[in-house]
Amino acid sequence: MQQASPTERSEAHGGEGERRDGQNSDGRNSGGRRHVSIVFRALNEEKWFAQALQACREQVAPGLETEIILVDSGSTDRTLDIAESHGVRVVHIKKQDFTFGRSLNYGCRSAAGDYLVFISAHCIPVHDRWLANLVAPLRQGAADYSYGRQLGHAVTRFSERQIFAQYFPDYDKLPQDDFFVNNANAAIRRDVWGRYEFDEEATGLEDMVLGKRIVKDGGRIGYVADAPVYHIHEETLSQTRRRYYREALTLREIMPEVQLHFGDFLRYTTAAIFHDFSEALQEKKFLSVAGEVMAFRLMQYWGAYRGHNEHRILSRAQKESYYYPRPRRSSPGAGAQASLDKAERSPAE
After folding, report:
1. Does a structural domain hold residue 244?
2. Structural domain count of the chain
3. Which residue, 103, 110, 121, is CA-closest to 44?
4. Which of 30, 49, 237, 317 has its CA 20 to 30 A from that of 162?
């Protein structure tokens, strides 16, 4: 017998009684309002977090009652103080227990909303209709899982702006044909999350792991162009390499047909660099960004190549190094970074 899609199952059970919190299964209470939980996850995100929270508080979202939750994995800067000053409910996860999927599951289990919104603590909603637009496909039954546009900030590297333009266009896809989704700016119906939950072992791309399962069961993912955020990455080049390495470890599991050989690494790196050079020439920025473009694209594809082709189990220390990229330190800390780089070059190579 064919399995019902997440949307069909929700509609089939939508009128069968009240939830324990007095809401129906579609998020409506007796006054017809919907409840939304905005879930952040953070580790030492003081620089942009206040702006992100302020933008969330300024949302104009008729018919939506909103709460904000922070899942914190051990911040030692002002992140927790900022959360408290903005009335954010904090959920703690131990550093040794952290994975991207597990931290979101912690937040979702603590949430009261029937629509769960995910946003990175270094993402800032662009306008006051971001929230309403992001959850609109869920409210209208057009999607089970939605995600919004990502734009570069003034500090964003030139090449990353090109990546944002590639994956987050200026037009909607409702629904889209594939399972791509990005939790830096996304929303899901609570009942759909509860049916699957996020993979707690994935080293990255927990959003796409869940998206693949939803689509496989007949569910729908939608992209909303007019729900944009500024996504701010201020990474060192080694952190960029580490991010793409970590994501590739998961990508090879969810898309085993996608293989990245050394020839592919050379070809994609070269193609991306020349693409960015072309864009930079058109924008009259070539001289100022040429070196940055080459370095970023090299780290992007080297990390992806390594992640696709490395066959080993990460140790606990190595996992922490990927989940918790070390900040830049003065020369005494250089030895620790050198040890990390040495560990990354495993004997199996």
Report:
1. yes
2. 2
3. 121
4. 49
